[in-house]
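Renewal narrative, Specific Aim 1. Our central claim is that a sequence can be written position by position from structural information alone. The example that follows is taken directly from our test logs and has not been curated for this report. It begins with the C-alpha cells describing the chain, in the order in which they were read.
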C-alpha cells in the first residue's frame, strides 16, 4: 500500500520537494525546447503536446494528432526512461538496450540519482578535481554515444558501499526518503509521458545500497505516474555463476571470486522475462563504457577493476560476453521463451 504520497496525492507536490534539475550538458534536451519538438526528424506524438517544465505547463508546437509508426521499421516510437544510481551503471547494465532503442527511433531519457562521487579512481584522476564532476562529464559523453535525448540528475550523493563513511551522509541516496525521491522521478515520468521505465532488481544486483534504492524509488514512481512497463535491469545469475567459475581459474585472480560469490545476486534464470540481444550495438556499448575512463583508472599494484578488465577484452569476446542484457518485467509471468523486445507489452 502506498498510503500518503500515493497516487491519490498527485499532482499536489509537497513544497519541500526540490525541483528536478535539468542536466546542463545536453542543452536543449528538454522536450519543451524547440530543438526537441522533433526528434530525429520525426514530429513528436501528440502525447507530448503539453509538458510541465520550469514550474508551468507549456504547449509544445508541432505535435501530430497521434503517434505514427516509423516509416522504415514500422515500429511505434515509445519513450523509455532509464533510471540509474551512478554514472557508468547505464552503460554496464543497459547500454545495449538504450543504444538499440535510440537507434530504432525511440526517445531515451536517462535519469541518474547520484554523481558517483564515492567511486574509486587513481590518484592521478583524483588530482584533476572533484571526481563527481569528472563522472558527470563522462556520463554526458556516454549518453551522447548511446543516443539519449535527455539526461536528468537527481543530485543525491553517492552512498558508497555500506561500510564507507559516505553511506552515513544525510544527502546520500541510500538515506533519501523513498516517497520524496519517487515524487521527483514520477514528475519526470509524467512530463515525458514515459511508456517504459528501467530500474534494478530488489537486491540491487550485488547489494549496493544506492542500487537497492533505485529499485524502491523506481517501483513507487512508476505507480505514481502510471507508467505502463517497468523493467528490472539485471543479470542472469546462472550466466554470472559460469562467468565467475571461468574467471576464478585465471592466474592472479584473488580467492573469493568463485561461483559461490553469485549466490543471492541479481536474478535466477527462472524469474527472467527478457533476454535482449544487443550484439549489433556492442561497439556503442563498449564506447559508452570507455567514456567512463575514471572508473577504469587504477594505481599500480592496487588490483583489477571491472571496467578495466571489460575494456581490455578482445572485441569478439566483449561482444559475446556483453551482447546480452536481461530484464524482469513487472506483471509479466516469467517463462520461456524469454522476450527480446522491451516494448513487447506496448505493441498493439
Ligand atoms: Zn552503481
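The sequence written for that structure reads:
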Amino acid at each position: 500500500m502506498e498510503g500518503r504520497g500515493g497516487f491519490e496525492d498527485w499532482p499536489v507536490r509537497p513544497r519541500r520537494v526540490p525541483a528536478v534539475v535539468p542536466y546542463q550538458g545536453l542543452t536543449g534536451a528538454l522536450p519543451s525546447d524547440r530543438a526537441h519538438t522533433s526528434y530525429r526528424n520525426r514530429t513528436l506524438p501528440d502525447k507530448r503536446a503539453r509538458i510541465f517544465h520550469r514550474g508551468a505547463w507549456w504547449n509544445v508546437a508541432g505535435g501530430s494528432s497521434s503517434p505514427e509508426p516509423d516509416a522504415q521499421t514500422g515500429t511505434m516510437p515509445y519513450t523509455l526512461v532509464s533510471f540509474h544510481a551512478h554514472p557508468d551503471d547505464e552503460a554496464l547494465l543497459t547500454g545495449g538496450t538504450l543504444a538499440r532503442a535510440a537507434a530504432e527511433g525511440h526517445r531515451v531519457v536517462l535519469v541518474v540519482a547520484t554523481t558517483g562521487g564515492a567511486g574509486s579512481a587513481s590518484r592521478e584522476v583524483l588530482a584533476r578535481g572533484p571526481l563527481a564532476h569528472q563522472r558527470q562529464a563522462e556520463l554526458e559523453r556516454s549518453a551522447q554515444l548511446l543516443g539519449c535525448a535527455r539526461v536528468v540528475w537527481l543530485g543525491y550523493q553517492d552512498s558508497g558501499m555500506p561500510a564507507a563513511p559516505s553511506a552515513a551522509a544525510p544527502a546520500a541516496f541510500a538515506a533519501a526518503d523513498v516517497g520524496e525521491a519517487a515524487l521527483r522521478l514520477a514528475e519526470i515520468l509524467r512530463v515525458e509521458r514515459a511508456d517504459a521505465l528501467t530500474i534494478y532488481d530488489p537486491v540491487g544486483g550485488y547489494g549496493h545500497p544506492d542500487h537497492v534504492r533505485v529499485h524502491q524509488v523506481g517501483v513507487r514512481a512508476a505507480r505514481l505516474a502510471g507508467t505502463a512497463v517497468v523493467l528490472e535491469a539485471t543479470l542472469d545469475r546462472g550466466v554470472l555463476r559460469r562467468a565467475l567459475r571461468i574467471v576464478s581459474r585465471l592466474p592472479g585472480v584473488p580467492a573469493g571470486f568463485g561461483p559461490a560469490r553469485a549466490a543471492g545476486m541479481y536474478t535466477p534464470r527462472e524469474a527472467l522475462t527478457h533476454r535482449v540481444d544487443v550484439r549489433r550495438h556492442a561497439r556503442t556499448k563498449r564506447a559508452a563504457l570507455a567514456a567512463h575512463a575514471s572508473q577504469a583508472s587504477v594505481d599500480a599494484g592496487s588490483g583489477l577493476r571491472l571496467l578495466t578488465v571489460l575494456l581490455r577484452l578482445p572485441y569478439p569476446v566483449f561482444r559475446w560476453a556483453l551482447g546480452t542484457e536481461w530484464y524482469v518485467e513487472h506483471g509479466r509471468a516469467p517463462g520461456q521463451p524469454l522476450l527480446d523486445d522491451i516494448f513487447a507489452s506496448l505493441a498493439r
